[in-house]
Specification:
Layout (H helix, E strand, L loop, with lengths): L1 E10 L2 E7 L3 E6 L6 H13 L14 H6 L4 E9 L5 E10 L8 E8 L2 E3 L1 H4 L5 E4 L4 H5 L2 H15 L1 H25 L8 H37 L6 E6 L4 H4 L6 H14 L1 H7 L10 E6 L2 E2 H4 L2 H23 L4 E5 L7 H11 L4 E6 L14 E6 L2 E4 L6
Parallel strand pairs: 3-13, 3-14, 8-12, 12-13
Antiparallel strand pairs: 1-2, 1-4, 4-5, 5-6, 6-7, 9-10, 10-11, 14-15
Helix pairs in contact: 5-6, 6-7, 6-10, 7-9, 7-12
């Protein structure tokens, strides 16, 4: 899988960018603040429909466009070549008028081959694995960061998961709203019957998919970590589903086996949920534990160890994506190689050679060097423009 073309209009630091691309290595050099991360963020958004950094959709629109135009529109478009054939994916972010004094707001629209689609129809058409400094939050951040990682990773590989997750989130919202009404004694507990059934079925699909994916990632990441940080400690990744102990063993079973038991437990805990006014078990409260040498990596590991663990996880994700789909993802390395020593850079680049296309951003045009990547195409990012470096190979 690779991008054959990328177009950005009014996106972050890019007023207009059009790139023709080929398979292989692409090294993009530029000083800090020049927009290198914005470029990789845009590619990742076309794959997942989510921004890795923006708190709101309006934050993705070019700052200059927001200043110069009353209601600017940001457009992201990519032509993707894969085993399933060529496809064009597009995300349109349109600013909309808001109340005076309120933050800027925007709406998103999605297209596949020029036809309007839902966000879920876009996910998986382009698959990427992005490693950035923000990935340390997977190791030492809040549980929500780890759940987000799981959702983005699995959604690119499994359309069933996308639908189940969206259904679960909608049902959870409805159930919690009803629980708050019941807490105030406005309604009857049997009104929960329908929502409990829906929550158990969609939740079981989410839980079992997370368990299976994490089991595969844990095996791969453990092996990769030995290569990246050969200091003797072992990396272990453990799934912590937010379920009572009798149910935790069932997450490794098919969803059809877990769903009825999940429903029984929801019924048993109904009174407690009503008292709390919230659903207290389920995948919305899941967590993942990273252990180094048997100790929690988030609190006991050094930053270097955490970085190696996060990178090992991402490299395992590349292998899993290739295995499940038969087509390697696009690999995005956001200023990661410049902070690794030569031996670790070599190990990362060995994985990069296993995929069809890699984008590497760096503040130093000489790292990675031409000797390390003799066939890479090299670019300089200046003032929102990506220009080939004249002596770039190929």
């Amino acid at each position: 899988m690779h991008l054959s073309g990328l177009s950005l209009t009014n996106v972050r630091s890019f007023r207009r960018l059009d790139l023709e691309l080929r398979p292989g290595m692409h090294v993009i050099a530029g000083p800090n603040g020049s927009g290198k991360s914005n470029l990789l963020e845009a590619i990742a958004l076309l794959a997942t429909t989510r921004s890795v950094r923006a708190a709101a959709d309006a934050d993705l629109i070019s700052w200059d466009a927001l200043r110069d135009e009353p209601l600017p529109v940001g457009r992201l478009s990519a032509q993707v070549a894969s085993r399933e054939g060529p496809v064009t994916v597009e995300v349109v972010i349109a600013a909309r008028a808001g109340l005076e004094g309120q933050p800027a707001a925007a709406t998103r629209r999605f297209r596949v081959n020029g036809v309007a689609r839902r966000a879920s129809d876009l996910i998986g058409r382009l698959r990427v694995v992005l490693f950035s400094a923000d990935d340390l939050g997977i190791i030492d951040g809040a549980p929500a960061a780890r759940r987000r990682y799981l959702d983005v990773t699995i959604s690119q590989l499994d359309p069933t998961y996308v639908r189940a997750l969206q259904r679960y989130q909608r049902v959870l919202q409805q159930r919690n709203s009803l629980l708050r009404r019941l807490q105030e004694r406005r309604g009857a507990p049997n009104e929960l019957d329908f929502w409990d059934q829906e929550l158990a079925e969609s939740g079981a699909t989410v839980l079992t998919a997370r368990a299976a994916t994490l089991a595969a990632l844990a095996t791969g990441a453990s092996a990769r970590y030995v290569d990246l940080a050969p200091a003797g400690e072992e990396l272990a990744i453990c799934y912590r589903p937010a379920l009572p102990p009798p149910l935790t063993d069932l997450v490794s079973e098919p969803a059809a086996a877990l769903a009825p038991r999940f429903l029984e437990t929801l019924n048993e805990l109904r009174r407690r949920d009503i008292q709390a006014g919230a659903t207290r078990i389920g995948p919305h409260r899941d967590d993942v534990t990273f252990l180094l040498g048997g100790h929690p990596a988030g609190v006991s590991a050094s930053r270097g160890q955490q970085r190696s663990a996060a990178l090992a996880l991402r490299l395992a994700e590349v292998a899993l994506s290739t295995q499940r789909t038969g087509d390697a993802p696009v690999l995005l390395l956001d200023d990661v190689l410049s902070e690794l020593d030569a031996a670790r850079r070599a190990r990362v680049l060995a994985t990069a050679y296993e995929v069809d296309q890699v984008f590497i951003t760096t503040p130093d045009p000489d790292r990675p060097s031409v000797d390390e990547l003799p066939s890479a195409r090299r670019y300089q990012l200046v003032s929102g423009a990506v220009r080939p470096i004249e002596d770039a190979a190929g």
